[in-house]
Write a structure and sequence with these properties.
By secondary structure, the protein is α/β, with parallel strands linked by helices. It contains 8 helices and 7 strands. It has a 7-stranded parallel sheet with strand order 3-2-1-4-5-6-7, sandwiched between helices. The structure holds 1,4-dihydronicotinamide adenine dinucleotide. 1,4-dihydronicotinamide adenine dinucleotide (NAI) binds near residues 113, 186, 189 and 192.
């Protein structure tokens, strides 16, 4: 398949989870990719993406550090010759009830999830403006649309990514640059395991899976498929949108009428 034939992509958080799934899907669709991550050891998906992309580099840095972001964007552009697509997937879980939340933890979550997205957009946009084309996909979350118990900093960071996406879409649309977000439900990645696979959380994990109307967690590939759509020309008239990909998590609430209605 070649929905991204001839295109170039910079993907943050590319070492793991949704980011590496995007990298491999984009490479399968003909894009040449460069990854960026705090962790220089990419997972097996990244390894495959790098192979398909002719030895793609995984640049190591911290999305919170502007000098590292600026250098990475310059390196990616040198390597690829252009920057058509940017996926902001680097992110962390975190937070807690506000009265108990260390200010350092608030700063960590907001800085990685929100400021990191801002910094990559800030330094990639001038390249896209010069090209007069580009497509940016930001990883927000259903937790950017509705709250989750104890979600504080994470909820705030992802809600802000949703609105930053709209702002970017508005400001850059007439320069040929589209900006969209994805709001995934709970997706089986190391980030999710880091929270829901903690000892004693088995029942909680089952309850969270059940909150998705489809009764299961999502797979990173299901988010990469949505990112591919938004990044590609198939979405040529889509900008400022936050695409919910959540197995029905935000569709509504079941109250146990399924059996009575013959649906169980
Ligand atoms: P993950 O933990 O598998 O991957 C995140 C990657 O970001 C890791 O490789 C990590 O090293 C990198 N990273 C973290 N902090 C960084 C920093 N300061 N600088 C550079 N790289 C850094 O997580 P996952 O699940 O793939 O998450 C990707 C994105 O999707 C995140 O923004 C997350 O908030 C979002 N998301 C994930 C959901 C899930 O259930 N897994 C649900 C909704 C949104």
């Amino acid at each position: 398949m070649s929905r991204l034939a001839g295109m170039t992509a910079l993907i943050t958080g590319a070492a793991s989870g949704i980011g590496s799934a995007c990298a491999v899907r984009f490479a399968q669709e003909g894009a040449r990719v460069v990854g960026f991550d705090a962790n220089g050891a990419g997972d097996e998906r990244w390894t495959e993406a790098a192979r398909l992309s002719g030895g793609a580099p995984l640049l190591v840095g911290d999305v919170r550090r502007e000098v590292e972001v600026e250098a990475a964007v310059a390196q990616a552009r040198d390597h690829l010759g252009s920057l058509d697509l940017l996926v902001n997937s680097a992110g962390v879980a975190g937070g807690g009830p506000v009265h108990m939340l260390a200010t350092e933890e608030w700063d960590r979550v907001i800085d990685i999830n929100l400021k990191g997205t801002f910094l990559f957009c800030k330094h990639t946009l001038p390249v896209m403006m010069e090209q007069r084309r580009g497509s940016i996909v930001n990883l927000a979350s259903i937790e950017g649309l509705e709250a989750f118990e104890g979600g504080s900093a994470y909820n705030a960071s992802k809600g802000a990514v949703v609105l930053l996406t709209k702002n970017l879409a508005m400001d850059y649309a007439r320069l040929g640059i589209r900006v969209n977000a994805i709001c995934p439900g709970f997706i089986q990645t190391p980030m999710m395991s880091g929270v829901l696979d903690l000892g004693g959380f088995e029942e909680l994990k089952a309850r969270v899976a059940d909150l998705h109307q489809m009764g299961r967690f999502g797979r990173p590939e299901e988010i990469a498929a949505a990112a591919l759509f938004l990044a590609s020309e198939d979405a040529s008239f889509v900008t400022g949108h936050s695409l919910v990909v959540d197995g029905g998590y935000t569709a509504g609430h079941r109250i146990g009428l399924g059996k009575m209605m013959g649906l169980e």
